[in-house]
Amino acid sequence: MKSIERGYIQVYTGDGKGKTTAALGLALRAAGAGFNVFIGQFLKAKTSSEYKALSRFKDLITIKAYGRKGLLKEVSPIDIKLARDGLEDSKRAILSNKYKLVILDEASVAVHLNLFPIEALLEVVLIKPPPLELVITGRYAHRRLIEIADLVTEMKEIKHYYKKGITGRRGIEY
Amino acid sequence: MKSIERGYIQVYTGDGKGKTTAALGLALRAAGAGFNVFIGQFLKAKTSSEYKALSRFKDLITIKAYGRKGLLKEVSPIDIKLARDGLEDSKRAILSNKYKLVILDEASVAVHLNLFPIEALLEVVLIKPPPLELVITGRYAHRRLIEIADLVTEMKEIKHYYKKGITGRRGIEY
Fold first, then answer.
1. Global pTM value
2. B172/A49 Cα distance (integer angstroms)
3. Which domain holds residue B150?
4. Residues of B with CB below 8 A from A28's CB?
5. What distance in Å separates the CA atoms of residue B31 and residue A63, rounded to the nearest whole number?
6. Which residues of B touch A156 (CB under 8 A)?
7. Residue A158: inside a domain, yes or no?
8. pLDDT in tens, B87-121
C-alpha cells in the first residue's frame, strides 16, 4: 500500500537571484507530475512574463498577485490590505486540499515590511495539511520561519550585474 | 532606436536546493516573454517531471538530456562520450542564433567529474553571441567560470530534509 507522501516546508531566502525562479521551477515540475499548484505572489502585480507562460497550465496552476505595479517605495494602507487579503486567500488555498504545492512568493519580504506580522504567516504555514508541500520565498526570512522549515536555502549573492547598473529585463528578471 | 539588449552569463552553484529549478523558472519566464530557450541537461536522463511540463512549450523551449538514468556511481567512457557530445550539441545551439536563453544544467558537475575539462566549458561559454543569456548550473562551479560570469548565486544549504533520510520525490525533486 502506498502511504500518503509527506509534504515539507521549504524556504528560499537570501540576497541572491533565484528565489522566485526556483519556486516557479518547482511549480513547473509539480505540474509535470500532474499535481495542482497554487502560487500567491505578495508585493507583485499580475504583469510579469511568468503569468503569460503559466497561462498554458490553467488546468493545474493557479497564480494570484497581491501587490501593486511598480516598486514599493513607501508602505501604504492599500499595500497592507492587499497583503493581508492575500494571506487570507492563501490560507483558503492551503486548507482547500486541492493543491499538492502552495507557493507564498515574497511572503518573507511582506513580513519584513510589516505588511503582516510573522505570527500571521506562521499561523498559515502551520495549518498546512501533512501532504502539502509549502514554499515560502523572499529575502529576510524570519528566524522563526527558518526554525519551523524542513528545508532552507540561502541564495547568496556572489556577483550581480545589477551592480554594473543593469536594470531588470523583460523575460529575464520579470 | 532600441539597442540590442546584452545577454549575461549567470552561474548557479552551491550545495543547496534550487539551482536547476531556478534555471527552469528562468526558462518559463523567458518563454512567457516569447523567447526561444534551449536547455541542455548534463548527467540526467529524459525522465523527469520537467520534461512532461515543458512539452507544453514545444514551440519555444527545446530540452535535451546528455546523461543516463539513475545516479552516477562511477564515471564510465559512456558518460564521458554523452557529456562531450552534449557540450558540442550545446555549442551548436549557442551559435545557432535561434535562442535568447541557453541553460547548461549541471555543467559544473560534469567539469567536477572530469567528463570534460573546464577549458572545454569555458570555450563554449565564451563563444556566446552578445545578446544571448547563458545560464550554467551545478555544484562545484569552477573558479575560472565564476571569474568570467556576470552573475553568480550560491545556493547555500541552511537546512535540508535529505538529512532526515528523505529521498527524492516525483514532482518535487525530479
1. 0.92
2. 23
3. 9-164
4. 24-25, 28, 50, 53-54
5. 17
6. 14, 153-156
7. yes
8. 999 999 999 999 999 999 999 999 999 999 999 99
The domain tally of chain B equals: 1
Q: What contacts B120, CB < 8 A, 6 or more positions away?
A: B84, B87
Is the residue at A174 inside a domain? no
CATH of the domain at B18: 3.40.50.300
In this structure, are strands A37-42 and A101-105 parallel, antiparallel, or unpaired? parallel
Closest chain B residue by Cα to residue A17:
B153
A30·B157 Cβ contact <8 A: no
SS3 category, A113: coil
CA dist A52 to A29, A44, A55, A103, Å? 17, 15, 5, 18
The ipTM is: 0.91
- Within 8 A of A48 by CB-CB distance, chain B residues are 29, 32
Query: Which cell is B60 given?
Result: 519555444
Residue A88: inside a domain, yes or no?
Answer: yes
pLDDT of amino acid A170? 85
The span from the CA of B147 to the CA of B15, in Å, is 19
A153 belongs to a structural domain: yes
How far does CA A171 lie from the centroid of its chain? 19
Give the chain B residue whose CA is nearest to the CA of A34: B171
Cell numbers linked to B61: 523551449
- Tell me, what's the pLDDT at B5? 76
Q: How far is A118 from chain B (nearest CA, A)?
A: 20
Residue to mutate among B13, B28, B54, B133, with most A CBs inside 10 A, is B28
**Residues β-bridged to residue A105:** A41
* A22·B22 Cβ contact <8 A: yes
Question: How far does the CA of residue B140 sit from the closest CA of chain A (Å)?
Answer: 14
Query: What tens digit of pLDDT does each residue of B51-79 get?
Result: 999 999 999 999 999 999 876 778 899 99
3-class SS letters over B75-144: CCHHHHHHHHHHHHHHHHHHHCCCCCEEEEECHHHHHHCCCCCHHHHHHHHHCCCCCCEEEEECCCCCHH
Whether A160 and B151 lie within 8 Å, measured CB to CB = yes
